Amino acid sequence: MAGKFEVFLDPQSKFRFRLVGADGAVMAVSQAFNDKASVVVGIAAVRECAGTGLVTDLCPAGAQTPSVTVAAAAPATEPILDDRAVARLHAIATAKGLRRHADPAHWDRRRSRAELAN
């Protein structure tokens, strides 16, 4: 089973989502959103960019991995995505959504060009 996104209200009555792994561990928690529509855009942005995200190692040289296994680690309570990252993902998803609605599908353009040629 794959992970899932859960939408919830935080203590300040703001909407957030969290990515929960197949084992039930919380993998990421979003920033606060004012409405559900913004949450949906944020989830779409994470889905779009998650597979293409670069990994930057900010650990000091020579740092070793902890001896604690991943399954035994406590779930994260702090948001993994900072406000800047979520805002950037939101902007990317919004731009892609606008582009998808503005441009006809490529097969529609080909067909209309062929019809114009006849």
TrEMBL record:
Gene3D superfamilies: 2.30.29.80. InterPro entries: DUF1508, YegP-like_sf. Residues 13-55 form the DUF1508 domain. Pfam families: DUF1508 (PF07411). This is DUF1508 domain-containing protein. It comes from Pseudarthrobacter equi.
